[in-house]
Amino acid sequence: MQQWLPVGVTPGQRFAASDGPVCEASAVSEQSSPSYRGRDAPVAVVTGAAGNIGRRILERLGDAGYLAVGLDLPAALPDGDPRFRGCDITDDAEVRRVVAAILADLGRIDVLVNNAGISAIGRFEDHDVAVHRRVVEVNHLGAVACTQAALPALRETSGRVVVIGSVTGFAPVLGRPAYVGAKHAVTGPFESLRIELAPEGVGVTLVHPTFVSGGMGEAGPRSSGRIRVTTGAEVTADDVARAVVDGVAQGRDRVFVGRTARLSWHLYRHAPGLYTRLMTRRLARAAVTGDLRGEA
Hints:
alpha/beta; seven-stranded parallel β-sheet; Rossmann fold; globular
């Protein structure tokens, strides 16, 4: 059973509560409802929390001492877990209601992790505009809506916004054009937002994984024969979750998860032509000709 304590405090250690005398730390079971844990706990909100990556981020933040609240579509939520709240992040009014409810219950938000995302596997013409729009709505506009709703609270705590990006957010990757567009769309504004919010004490961290084992949900059906293809060693959901926690703790601007992500960042910035040739050599035959081999 995991135990919660304020960040940096161990059981038995004496510490000063913000609204009380020096006292001895005691642990509270994570099975307790979040509403009963007190308002001095740092609060982290994670979108897409019912998915593979989101659930690991939620657990890792809890282990790090945060009171972690997970948001996802109501139908995706696990039964009986008080950490989760239903929220469609593409509905701006609903996002604002849910964030207001979190603040009413817990009093603060210290970290917002914009993790929710969906992809679309195939060639550019495999999916109509509605699929491209849906991918942008979840990956980009959902992050915008959640950040706008949480930003006043993050200013109060000098908190941090985290965006789960991707190699597809800073470099071309074949086989998923709608996803590439959406990740580029979310990466650019949040890179700029970091500069805008810095004078107000709010940080912005972009976490860029390479391909994550298991893939993710998709906005539309694949055309016949289309299979998800990858290159390089894949990382796990837990690799991404640990990178999020480390990035927040260290106040980092960017975190790259996996060797392919780090190499892609430097190579595309300094030798884009070479990056493109290497990426094409590894992915083009599978992604463009339909001779698709790889993990579904």
